[in-house]
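Subject: for your reference before the review

Hello V.,

The reviewers asked for a structural picture of the protein, and I figured it would be easier to keep everything in one thread rather than splitting it across files. Below is the amino acid sequence we used in the manuscript, unchanged from the supplementary table.
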Amino acid sequence: MVSAKRWANSNLTSEPARYWSDATASFLRARRNALWRAYCDELHADLLREWLYSTHVEHALKTDLFDEASGAGLVATLKEFADCVHGLDLSPEVIHNAQSSNITLRACNADVRTMPYASQSFDLIFSDSTLDHFMHWHDLDVALYELYRLLKPGGKLVITLDNLANPLIALRQRLPFVWLHRLGIVPYYTGRTLTATGLHAYLTHLGFTVPCHKIIMHVPRIAAIAVCRLAGLARNQTVNDTFLKLFKQFDRGAKLPTAEWTGYFVAALAVK
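And here is what came back from the structure prediction:
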């Protein structure tokens, strides 16, 4: 049984909490982002089903609730593999929005670097692009250790991070965030991240075994987001479904020798 402090109703008033509240609010106002969010959800749902097809556990944890606050999210998919899905987020507003459409979600207002759960509380942890928003490498180290601490022996971690081997991601990391944000290229702060090799090294150093890894999201991202925004103006489900199918065709790129450079996220299945 998970033992967590009752932080769900507490008010974290730190700068990061306010920042992510505002970032999510901007996504909710921009309804044109709905198609892109749907694609991201489907991409990660497919990854979970590929790697967890024979898994059924008691407790699963999702390390942020941005997906659930700004779209359908992944809670319903995680329920396919776990009896009870927990989630945490820095922002009370994000939690409120996530729970409004996921009434069975057990949400906690907390920082992924200092999670208020007992060690070995979870059988499964899903961390999709949560840990690539830190300014300092130390914070990434601490957060990864927390994920290891919370997993039971034999527990599984599915994690994705921005792919530093992608030339566009590498360039983005070198340019001032303020410029990119003002141009509308990067909607929120992106921080330290890794290549597939780097993520594998981090995980094995902590004591995980890594039976599966891959590079995901091979659709040209900037062009795809622009298309999603135009499609959002039409508000036509047939149009949306057509573009979703088109975007998913690009994910065949994961099998190509060039995958390391074309994919936007590194993904790994790690077992404690």
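For the response letter, the relevant points are probably these. The first strand starts at residue 57 and ends at 62. Strands lie at 57-62, 82-89, 106-109, 122-128, 151-162, 209-216, 265-271.

Happy to draft the paragraph if you're swamped.

O.
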